[in-house]
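Structure, all three chains, one model.
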Amino acid sequence: MLINVENLKLSLNGVSILQDVQLHVAPNQIYGLIGPNGAGKSTTIAVVLGLYAADSGKLELFGKATEKTSADVRRRIGVMPEHAGFYDWMSACDYLAWHANLYGGPRRAIPELLAQVGLEQAGRCPIGRFSQGMRQRLALARALAHGPELLILDEPTNGLDPRGRREIHDLFLSLAREQGVGILLCTHLLDDVDRLCSRIGIIHHGCTVLEGPLAELLGRHGAGGVYRLRLDNVPDAGAMPKEMEMEDRGNGWWCVRLPTDTNPADLWQRLLEHGWRIREIRAEGGGLEDLYIRMTHAAVESRQEGTV
Amino acid sequence: MRMFLIIATAMVGSLVQAASLSVRLSPDAENPTMPTMGDNMRFHSVITATAEEPVDGVVAWISLVEIDPGREQPVDLEDWSAHKAVSAARLEPGEELETTWPMRLIQDGDYRVVVSVTARNQDAVFASSTVQFHVTRKPVVESRRIFPVAIGLPVLLLGMLGYRRWHVGHFMRPSAKGFRGHR
Amino acid sequence: MSNPIGLIAAKERRALLENQRGLAWLLAFSATLSAFALLLVSNTELSLLDNAQVVYLMVGTVTAAGAVIAVILGSDAFAGERERGTLVPLLTAPITPAQLLTGKAAGLLAAWGVMYVLALPYLWAVGAGGQNLLQAVVYLALFGTPVVLGFGYMAMTLSAWTGGVMTSLVGSLIALLFSIGPLFLDPSLRDSAVGRALDMVNPFAGAINTYDAVIVDSETFSPQLPRLALVVIWLGLMLLAARHAARKPCFR
């Protein structure tokens, strides 16, 4: 496990910020940490990075317990903070080289790194002339420069256009699947989490209200919801499971509504066994967004009832 | 003979009138014995009305003369002293007017200082005896060293600043292309 | 592997010398000394000062300017990084707080070094042909450096604690003014018991009084030892404060 956090507690200036946080990030995995503003996401990341010392709880990085995040551990972590700051008078090349040297040197040539994030034309330009999107790309390059095993990214797609977002998603997936990098992704954008993350943690008022594999959580908590299925064959009305409602949307697309206690994965499996030829499944409404809203609302109610 | 006596009496009378004011000048006891540039000195004058009638509208002033060979000239007291003259509305017979004259020694050289006095109802100017003093030169800042440094260094830095501005402004606006390197 | 202290110091040095803002500060410093030097030849009163007096004044001016620059750079050390968004990347890099602080201090020393070198031609211009010019150059380094560095550490302490450049700068400048202010008092007031007590704890006064003693009065080194101890102790205390603050700087 790259990050193993259990029962983390933290108070700052007498105010309880984190009360019970769990976080488990493995190699080859993209973990989505989501929660409302002020829930404690950034504070959790700060504790993981050693910027705050937790009051109690377990924190392990790369399998070793750490009270303080040592220099050796930091060398294996790449960080992309929410607000990307640089020295505007430096060129992108110079800055990346300088920053990578703090970690012992860049793992590959700086021009190659800049090309990976789409800044190959801007290497010699002062950073002060960069747009917001370019600064975001440069921040990612900074995090990648020393070849980390673990990436901690706070709102990494801020300021990127849809095409840029898609490209950065593909880069993250490539890093996780092909290079074995573990990624802790802290974001508000549930679409990003849906697309990228295999495991999520929902944090609210300093507590982890839900944590685990995304598909399992969606199934277990019956996010229910609405799906669009693209089918190669028109299903026989008699062969349709009773619990689902289907509506023909044309061109092979069907809109399917599931009750909240139905595990979609089980249902798709049953349909396949009954000879349905499903080409594509897309979640529409419900899904992660529903789950998120329900879990954070439930957490608020529990808190108000004094059960948290 | 009689005419001679009349003329002589008139001359003596005029002499008596011209001697109605006397002035003495002396240096202050605490003046530096070997004054140098920048030192302060003081001189004291005593003006006495010696006539039997009062003297109205008395004005006295201090003068400084440089007497270095080849540089003999009166000195403008603008930087040397702010106290250049003194006046009195009336001096009764036998009354004295004491004045202190401060002076800052601005330039090296040999000098003589004198105090002169006249009055509204006097034709003559009465002068004190002179006080002579020598001002020694001391090493001070020389302008020929100052100007090249004081002007040259800022100009050099300005040039560096200008070059830096040009160097930065020489770059084209940066552009970004998409992400690469993913499969 | 590159030394983190050297990397941070190099960045600070580049920010001062290669950045336009840094060059502008040096230009302002040079212009100040130039204005002073030109006054010396154009103003009658000042032109009467002998070389030793002028050198003493200029050395004091350089030290004061160095302390001001140290306060400005020190205030930016942590709070400026935070406001620029570059503090978290530094704190999460594999460098210790002590290394970060030392790198910042090394950058500040480089700035002071440049100011010192820039001041040398001015000192030559006003002091050549007079007395104790060499002593002035040596004592400016010996006393000016710990005073300037001490004020820099003081500003870094406030910078790390407060997280705000303006707050840190104002606080540091007020402290600097308190240090410089008594020197404008009439010598008779400074000769009082209170004045002497203030001089005993005021590092800036320690430096200025040393310059006076050595350059104008031609004193030797040994009478300056108590004041040297004062400025060194001042430097040590400020260093300790800065190290303590740098362990947990305000970063959010």
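Chain B has two domains: 2-135, 143-178.
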